[in-house]
């Protein structure tokens, strides 16, 4: 029988707990669906723009446009579970935003990757 080393086992169990209750990720093509992206934009602007700006260019992070290889599962996990890095706190939204809408927000965030900044 194969046994995982304790640190690795902890990571596996933590990852499973973090996604418990979360919907399965949509296919990559679904994340590019214009209707899903638009629904995600509407929810992002209503919920996330206060801290991140309406196009992910505000706040104490790299602009979302600069993140072309950002893993959708990681984006989803941070929105759902939140995180803290020093004094920067991203609240967990799992109790406020249904998982389907979190995936819509992920689709919108992914759609920004590699896009040029709007000209004033």
Explain the overall architecture:
The model is unreliable at 6-19 (pLDDT under 50). α3 (34-47) crosses α6 (99-112). It contains six helices and two strands, in the order αααααββα. It is mostly helical and 120 residues long. The termini are far apart. It is 50% helix and 5% strand. The chain has a domain at 32-112: Cytochrome Bc1 Complex, Chain D, domain 2. Residues 35-113 form the Cytochrome c domain. InterPro entries: Cyt_c-like_dom, Cyt_c-like_dom_sf, Cyt_C_IC, Cytochrome_c_Oxidase_Subunit. It comes from Aquariibacter albus.
Strand content: 5-15%
Helical fraction equals: 40-55%
β-strand number = 2
Total of DSSP H or I helical runs spanning 4+ residues: 6
Strand order of the largest sheet: 1-2
CATH topology of one domain: Cytochrome Bc1 Complex, Chain D, domain 2
The name of the CATH superfamily of one domain reads Cytochrome c-like domain
Low-confidence stretches: 6-19
Structural class: mainly alpha
What integer value in Å does the Rg equal?
A: 16 Å
CATH architecture of one domain: Orthogonal Bundle
Termini distance? 62 Å
The SSE string, one letter per element, is HHHHHEEH
Oligomer: single chain
* Largest sheet entry: 2 strands, antiparallel
CATH class categorisation of one domain: Mainly Alpha
Looking at the structure, what is the overall shape?
globular
Q: What's the pLDDT, averaged over the residues?
A: 83
